[in-house]
Amino acid sequence: SNNLSSGDEILITEMEHHSNIVPWQIISKTTGATLKYIPIHNGQLKLDNLDTYITQKTKFVSIVHQSNVFGTINDIEKIIKASHGVGAKVLIDGSQSITHKKIDVQKLNCDFFVFSGHKMMGPTGVGVLYGKSDILDKMPPFLSGGEMINTVSMDNSTYNDIPWKFEAGTPNIAQVIGLGSAIDYLNTFG
């Protein structure tokens, strides 16, 4: 939310899971940014006039890779390319797609990629957030606690390197180990 202000636009789609709608509604109210939606028709995103949705005002695009309702696999490569063309950052929600196909975030060139552990036979309460390191380096921590600190003095503190600067307090160790085992198991299937 530090990078959004009044007049900026956040773009999502009408097929998003509530977890990718509600946070953007809250952020748009907090920052004054406008929340826009790419419409759907017959379970497909209407991408024929993409430049009407992705404009110079677009600062952030957050889109589901595969719909949990329709099963639709969205043309995220097209959306990422158009978004980057106007300087917008892109987050891909891969919670549904991650179990069905191999994902190469560097090839996709998305700025962020997220998925839930329980969607891939892992434990609940854990997931993965990938972010490009140059972006994560510039972002301030959003929680505070022990692990995210490098040095502490009476007057100042410095943040740890990524990813630790985003890990406030004791990590979710057991769940992360369980998620790692689930990923290893799924990888045996190719």
Verbal overview:
With 190 residues, this protein is of the alpha/beta class. It contains 5 helices and 10 strands, in the order E-H-E-E-E-E-H-E-H-E-E-H-E-E-H. Strands 2-1-5-6-7-8 form a 6-stranded mixed β-sheet. The chain has a two-stranded antiparallel sheet with strand order 3-4. Strand 1, helix 1 (22-31) and strand 2 (34-38) form a beta-alpha-beta unit.
What characteristic shape results from the CA principal axes?
globular
- Report the uncertain regions: none
State the secondary-structure class.
alpha/beta
Helical content, roughly? 10-25%
Tell me the span between the first and last alpha carbons. 38 Å
Total of DSSP H or I helical runs spanning 4+ residues: 5
Strand order of the largest sheet: 2-1-5-6-7-8
Number of strands: 10
Q: Largest sheet, if any?
A: 6 strands, mixed
Taken as a percent bin, the fraction of beta residues is 15-25%
Helix and strand run: EHEEEEHEHEEHEEH
> What is the typical, i.e. mean, pLDDT?
92
How big is the Rg?
18 Å
Keyphrases for this structure?
5 helices; two-stranded antiparallel ribbon; 190 residues; six-stranded mixed sheet; alpha/beta; single chain; 23% strand
Structure described in brief:
The protein is 24% helix and 23% strand. It has helices at residues 22-31, 76-85, 105-108, 133-138, 173-187; strands at 9-13, 34-38, 40-41, 44-45, 58-64, 89-93, 112-116, 127-131, 149-152, 157-159.
